[in-house]
Fold Lipid A core-O-antigen ligase-like enyme.
Amino acid sequence: MLDQNIELKRSCYRGEIYVEKLCVPALILYITSLFIFVDNPQFVNVSRVLFLFFAGVTTLVIISRQEVYVEKAMIYLYCFFVFCLASCFWALSYDDAVRKVVLLVQMLILLFLICQALSSKRQIDIVVFGIAIAGVALFIYGVIIYGLEHIYYAVLTGERLGKEISQENTMGRLASIASIVWFCYGVQKKNYLYFAAWLMPFVMVLASGSRTSAAIALIGILIAIIAKIGFKKSYKLLVRIPIVGVLLYFILQLSIFDSIKLRYFSLYSAVTTGEGDGNMRINMVKWGLEWFKESPIWGYGVGNYGELLVNKIGWDTYAHNNFIELLVGVGIIGFSLYYAVYAYIFYHLNQLMKRKDPTATILFIVLIMWICSEIGAVNYTSKMTYVLIGICISYIRLSNNQEITKHSRRKA
């Protein structure tokens, strides 16, 4: 009887390990689906099924482990959610506010599951590599949908691709994140194969025609180089600025950058002439700041920027700027609670970067570029936002636990 109980416990233990090992592949598959299917109404159910699979596996792990991880950054987000929920009572449009609250519930569940699923730094390294692989998968899927020749033609002519996959700007932002990860690997490991892989998601950035995505991809590359050589030595780059400037000028003359240059020129033209989509975006920011000044503490209710905008332009849409969307919707209180999460993450990742932690460096660069993309996007209800936050929170927790263990051993 005793032997049977021992064997049963061993079987259960083996089952727990097997289920726990499924968490990372399930999460990577889900992340890949975000790159390819998330905004596509025809295939979004594929992403939902993969999320349910990841959620089911992670729930089994939580039950078997009988332990839940709760970090300070998660508490900030829960407070942000509570404030958004409360804002429904003073919102201009109760229905719009409730819709955003429901979305936030889904995002927080995703965040919670990711924080529970990742229990080792090795797992996180695999997931970060999975983000890079998702960028390659996006390129392959793009070739299947459009054909390599069409992608090449679109890059040369300025035709924007991405609508058939998800949405042009969304595709561009996700591809830029994957390209940054590949470039960081190339710089850190000094392996040209990573730079070759970097080209695939970067081509999709160019094909999307997204100005913001192209900018964050290129700035991310610059930060990766500075992080590698060190901030103290980076001043030497100043000496080479004229040379780099000349090289950059000739590189930008390549036809593959024509579409991006065309969109930047159109933005400049819109600003100077007061016409076009670029000018509309600038006006939306100006109006948002005016509305924020009228209700700076509480805002007008989460997701209610569009209710104010409809009086200006005749239709309801979001701010296309995360900072303005939050300032108008939930005021300085909600804005501060949301960005306190990023402040917490950046502080701790910076501490890890001082110890020459390569994964912390990649996460820092990716997350700061993701925030930069919020100038042209509303990310607080984006699934990828909470994927990145969850990965960062987990990595900080595991790194801190590792340090505590080391100190304990030294004292012993």
Summary: Residues 210 and 281 are 14 Å apart (CA to CA). The chain has three domains: 1-67, 72-117+289-412, 127-275.
